[in-house]
Amino acid sequence: MYKVKPAVASITAADATTTYYETLAGAVEAATAGQTVNLLKAATGAGLKINKNVTIDFGGFTYTINQAVGSTGTESQGFQLLKNNTVTLKNGNIAIAEGTNVKWMFNAYADVTLENLNVNCANMAAPAENEANYVLVVNNGGSATPTVTYTNVIVTNFPSTATAQIWLDPTTTLKAGAGLEDSIKTQEGYVVVYNNGVYTVARPVASITREGVTTEYATLGDATKAAVNGDVVKLLCDVNGGEVTVDLQVAKKITVDLGGHKYTSKGTAFIAYRAGTELT
């Protein structure tokens, strides 16, 4: 007598024929370019290494990862999403089984949409020295230039020892709402830039050192706006930029040190500032 295992996932083809699978990984492996894999119930299984255009709709269910994926010998990811693909993961919950070596949940070399997901990082493995935990790594490895769209992603139980939920490489893009600046890290010598729903990475052009801590900024304008009374804003390189507006809510005195560099303004003035401001 044979025991039939209940289906965990399904794919419905263009001709409306539905095929059922015992595992989510098996369904993703069977999917052809552009198809949607539907999770049909809460399930536990291996992480997913995806090298195709595919959508996974978790259907409001929880998928618990019990085996990490990644490059041979360094398997430490929940989802490895390989370059030159478009992948969507949406509408569900992701968790990690106890004792599983997941240190990064999503490692994106591909163009990825993460939408309506609850990501539970309880049981995320502790990183080794010189490593870190991340919910999302937007990765430029192998000359990848991915764009990740990050919408309504709720993260819980993220390790308190981690310094940021997201790693953003140079030449990559993150599309997400405002307010994630403190949750994103990038390579040394770069800063994260937010503009109208898009996070990118750029070389810093200005800095402020306050109480021994130096903060770098992508534009001189950003630095002057962040300055407080008594700060010195230092230009770090020659810049061809727009008009710098010192738009202050209260009167304050700041110094702009060009540091021997040249700032070429594309606006009608180099610096415009409100009355009550003292600028050296």
Report a brief summary of the structure.
Helix content is 5%, strand content 45%.
Entry keywords:
280 residues; mainly beta; 12-stranded mixed beta sheet; 27 strands
Spell out the blueprint of helices and strands.
Elements: E1 9-12, E2 18-21, H1 24-30, E3 36-39, E4 43-46, E5 48-50, E6 54-57, E7 62-67, E8 77-81, E9 86-96, E10 104-108, E11 111-120, E12 134-138, E13 147-156, E14 166-168, E15 173-175, E16 184-185, E17 191-195, E18 198-202, E19 206-210, E20 213-217, H2 220-226, E21 232-235, E22 239-241, E23 244-246, E24 253-257, E25 263-265, E26 271-273, E27 278-279
Parallel strand pairs: 3-6, 4-7, 5-8, 6-9, 7-9, 8-10, 9-11, 10-12, 11-13, 12-14, 13-15, 14-16, 21-24, 22-25, 23-26, 24-27
Antiparallel strand pairs: 1-2, 1-3, 15-18, 17-18, 19-20, 19-21
Principal-axes geometry comes out as: elongated
What is the succession of H and E elements? EEHEEEEEEEEEEEEEEEEEEHEEEEEEE
- What does the largest sheet look like? 12 strands, mixed
C-alpha Rg (nearest Å): 23 Å
Structure overview:
There is one protein chain. The chain has two helices and 27 strands. It is mainly beta and 280 residues long. Strands 1, 2, 3, 4, 6, 7, 9, 11, 13, 15, 17 and 18 form a twelve-stranded mixed beta sheet that branches. A six-stranded parallel beta sheet has the order 5-8-10-12-14-16. Strand 19 and strand 20 form a beta hairpin.
